[in-house]
């Protein structure tokens, strides 16, 4: 009986200690978010510097401005701080767009070329913005590379490690659950921004069946179950009422398409 009583008392003490500790805001005390944010920004900047050295970056104002116009509509209508998103357009035929740490959003001209409608491009941009807002990017890097490797990048990590991490982001999919979350979040972004989300599903169908698209296309080879994801989007918007307003004028969209073609 005495032993049982001691066990109960000990258990109660442990519970009270745990309860007390759980009320302490360690995130605030140790500035974990601040440190993580600075680390993420530094890693993102290292990634971008590597891309800038090896790829052809588009600096034409009209091209950047038109893509930026879509990003801005999505951001402003969804309470996203547009100033934090760093949009980069790369002259490359690969059908690709991807997010990097530090709110970097990279878009290849090959993706713009593949989009028949501006709403298709908006869907991809919204999807990658969702990865940024949901912090999927760092979750993926930590899972695949480990926190110690990421931290080593900020203290003189070698270029080979940076290239490995970049390849991970630009050529491999997120977990299926994260991809699905980014899809649905992108649809929500589009609806709030008065952009028709159905073309996003149409693009997925098209790219999963179009044999003319290069095999290396990121959104085909590394975004699995494209047809199933397209169906999920269509099921999600079924019965929903939303406005359909173009972000770009027909002349602006034509200029953008003609420039990248």
Topology record:
Blueprint: H1 2-22, H2 26-29, H3 32-54, H4 61-76, E1 86-90, E2 97-100, E3 104-108, H5 109-114, H6 118-133, H7 136-145, H8 147-153, H9 159-171, H10 176-192, H11 198-209, H12 218-221, H13 226-237, H14 250-260
- Mean of residue pLDDT values: 83
Given the C-alpha coordinates, what overall shape results? globular
Largest sheet: 3 strands, mixed
SS summary, helix count = 14
Low-confidence region ranges = 15-35
Number of domains: 1
User: What percentage of amino acids are in beta strands?
Assistant: 5-15%
**Fraction of residues in helices?**
55-70%
Short description, anyone?
With 261 residues, this protein is mainly alpha-helical. Helix content is 66%, strand content 5%. The chain has one domain (27-249).
Descriptive account of the structure:
Helices cover 66% and strands 5% of the residues. By secondary structure, the protein is mainly alpha-helical. The chain has one domain. The chain has a three-stranded mixed β-sheet with strand order 1-3-2, with helices on both faces. The radius of gyration is 22 Å and the shape is globular.
Summary keywords:
single chain, 261 residues, 5% strand, mainly alpha
